[in-house]
Design a protein that fits this description.
Layout lengths: L6 E5 L3 H13 L3 E5 L2 H8 L6 E4 L8 H9 L7 E5 L4 H9 L4 E4 L4 H19 L10 E2 L3 E4 L4 E4 L2 E3 L3 H12 L7 H9 L7 H15 L9 E4 L3 E4 L12
Parallel strand pairs: 1-2, 1-3, 3-4, 4-5
Antiparallel strand pairs: 6-7, 7-8, 8-9, 10-11
Helix pairs in contact: 2-3, 4-8, 6-7, 6-8, 7-8
């Protein structure tokens, strides 16, 4: 059976940028649809699901952050890459905290954008095609249960919501407990690329993960910082040893 082409929705009000994205992504074998406003993008998203969304932030009417927030409240998970001229650190952090899986600043390299699109779609497909019968892929720690087939994480028995990148980052850490990884190594292993200058993306995702799985994100006991090197995952919550959890 022939491979089904992946469908990408581009929400971009700049006609020239939208056309460039449409032509180049189509050349790469994707089926591309365009929307020029937040409203029209959300209307398209309410129909048949897309495999990925490229989202501008500065849109007429409903802006990109609100679009991102509304999509994340839907039951169907759609990977989101924000493509925006707002290149500051705070805008990247806000975009990622709203649930975007990645953030690319304008002007951008088409080759890099396409590489990130492919990497993210690959990650999502890998999760979808995990063998359901293989319970060995499920990871259980003192407080967490991580199920890659269900794309689910439970903290003390309560389900928590993670983006694709957050889930992949946590799952990668949990598969390599106590191993130390630099930010560049995490970019390469989880994001599928290792571009200088994007280490802050790792920092943002780790901060959001800590906010979701740590009792006190300012004093983490599971995702630990190894000063001067990077991060590691501790399967044992050390706060329980002193009875503070």
């Amino acid at each position: 059976m022939a491979n089904i082409k992946k469908r990408i929705l581009v929400i971009e009000d700049d006609a020239a940028i939208a056309q460039v994205l449409e032509l180049n992504l189509a050349d790469e074998g994707f089926v591309v649809e365009l929307a020029t406003s937040g409203e029209s993008g959300l209307e398209k998203m309410s129909g048949e699901p897309y495999d990925l969304l490229l989202l501008d932030l500065m849109l007429p009417g409903i802006d990109g952050l609100e679009v991102c927030r509304r999509i994340r409240n839907q039951t169907i998970y759609t990977p989101i890459i924000i493509v925006s001229s707002k290149a500051s650190e705070i805008n990247r952090v806000v975009g990622l905290e709203m649930g975007a899986d990645d953030y690319i600043s304008k002007p951008f390299s088409l080759a890099e954008l396409i590489a990130r699109v492919r990497a993210l779609i690959r990650r999502v497909e890998a999760l979808k095609t995990a063998t359901p019968q293989d319970n060995s892929s499920i990871i259980v720690t003192e407080h967490l249960r991580i199920d890659p087939q269900a794309h689910g994480v439970w903290l003390n028995g309560q389900s928590i919501s993670l983006t694709t990148r957050e889930f992949e980052l946590l799952y990668f850490f949990a598969r390599h407990p106590e191993q130390i990884f630099t930010r560049m190594a995490l970019l390469d292993q989880v994001w599928g690329y290792s571009h200088d200058g994007y280490e802050h993306t790792v920092n943002s995702h780790i901060n959001r993960l800590r906010a979701k799985i740590e009792r006190d994100p300012t004093r983490p006991t599971q995702i630990l910082t190894v000063w001067g090197i990077g991060y590691k995952f501790s399967a044992i919550d050390e706060s329980t040893l002193s009875g503070t959890f």
